[in-house]
Amino acid sequence: MQFLLRKTHLTMQSANAMGPMLNIIALFSIISIFTGTFQPIIVLSAFLLSYLNIIAIYWLSRTFTSDGGYYTFAGKVFGPSAGTLTALLYALYGLPVLLDLSLFVESISEQVVGGFSVPYPIIAMFVGLMFIVLSIFIILTRERRSFAFTVAAGTFELTFIIITSMIFLIRGSDSISQTVSGFPGFSGTAQGLIFALLAFSGGGSSIFLSEKSRLPTNDPAKSIILSYTIVGLVLVLASFALNGAFTNGASSSSGTFQLISVVFADLGRRAALIFYLVALLSALNLTTSYLRALMGFFRRASIDNVMGMGTLANRKLAMSVYAAATFALYIAISLTTYTFLAFEIIAGLVSLSYIVVHIITNFSFLRLKVLKRSILYKTGSAASSVVLILVLIGSISGNLSSVPQIDFLFAIGIALCGAIIFVVRAIRPSSIRGLMVWALQDDLNDR
């Protein structure tokens, strides 16, 4: 009997894909580098902006029920080339997630384990490797068990954040007292905002499980709204409660996970260890949710034969190749690069790719002529597009003077996507034209 997903499963799938505790410990540290104590305002702004972003996802997921997600939306509205480009861009920011979070796990493990008299670099690297193995194991286990873990672990994570945020708000010790910093300016605001938007990325991951849900035209869309609202409120609460822990002098090359240090100094080693373990759980929740969405994406892409992805139909073989590649890259980066910097660069690449995919999704929704009384929705989506474009420009500009590697890798990724489509259209046009099968399916006629 087929296991069909309930709204609870889909909501926690999207909520976990946002990685609430991971955002607090990792991304809040990066945001504070650019915005100082304006961080809570940036997080609140990103939360409100995310509601504009999900307008398009909400309505498109109700119109087109496909595990292809973003590429299905773009392909059915703009045609196969746009769908292929969106599929490649989604893969560009989806595939590095496991590698990026394994680097996060190693980096935070170095900071925590470094306080003990042990060879912490080796132990931290081993923890990162085990994180990759555990993530793959959970995603390949039976779906019923995998989702049971997702719901239980996600609920615990959100509960922990709420309780600890309230403790910090009530306690208000000197070590988390507020400091005043100047306004970060356009560049700093844009760079901080793009990482804050990354905190809400993944919230639409339930659309990649639409075909397995009980009510495909209803549950995925509603789960997106629920997950954004729940996680958004929790993150805004945490950003105000813990703002003093993220100082204006934060630096990606020195103080990395300031919250862990503050908890250690203010509440002791045991409390810091608990925060560390919950951060690992959050990273695991996020990774498994992203991998689950990726599997739905590639399964649908293999059916639609997007760029010859029919060869990826063997789930275990594809996951084995992906795990092996991630292992190799992880070891190479760990042995040659400062892991937190690598984590920041990959996170920046994911952020920029995420923004572009959402701009394309917004344009797809704006062109779609389906909804009655849709002026309000489309106005919100148009406003979202304008803000996203400004944030994209500001972030790229700011990266040039702070972390230029992000822009360099992003430019390579975009160039590769364009080159792949150009070459395939010239050599194997059937791989692009094959998309017309789904691009012109009767969904458009049924709208």
Task: Write a structural description.
The radius of gyration is 21 Å and the shape is globular. 53% of the residues are buried. It has one domain (7-446): Amino acid/polyamine transporter I (Up-down Bundle), CATH 1.20.1740. The chain has helices at 7-17, 20-35, 39-63, 70-78, 80-94, 97-113, 120-140, 143-171, 185-198, 219-241, 258-267, 269-304, 315-336, 339-367, 375-401, 404-427, 429-433, 436-439, 443-446. The longest helix has 36 residues, at 269-304. The chain is mostly helical and 447 residues long.
In round numbers, the mean pLDDT is 79
Low confidence ranges: 173-180, 247-255, 434-447
Query: What profile does the largest beta sheet have?
Result: none
Strand content: under 5%
- CATH-defined topology: Amino acid/polyamine transporter I
- Count of helix runs: 19
Count of individual domains: 1
Q: H/E series, N to C? A: HHHHHHHHHHHHHHHHHHH
CATH superfamily: Amino acid/polyamine transporter I
Output the CATH class name.
Mainly Alpha
How widely separated are the two ends?
Answer: 31 Å
Tell me the quaternary state.
single chain
Shape: globular
Helix content percent band:
over 70%
**CATH architectural arrangement:** Up-down Bundle
Number of E-type strands: 0
Radius of gyration: 21 Å
Structural class: mainly alpha
Descriptive labels:
single chain; about 450 residues; Amino acid/polyamine transporter I; 19 helices; about 75% helix; globular; disordered C terminus
Question: Helices, strands, pairings?
Answer:
Layout lengths: L6 H11 L2 H16 L3 H25 L6 H9 L1 H15 L2 H17 L6 H21 L2 H29 L13 H14 L20 H23 L16 H10 L1 H36 L10 H22 L2 H29 L7 H27 L2 H24 L1 H5 L2 H4 L3 H4 L1
Helix pairs in contact: 1-8, 1-10, 1-12, 2-9, 2-10, 2-12, 3-9, 3-10, 3-14, 3-15, 4-5, 4-14, 5-14, 5-16, 6-7, 6-12, 6-13, 6-14, 7-12, 7-13, 8-10, 8-12, 9-14, 9-15, 11-12, 14-15, 14-16, 15-16
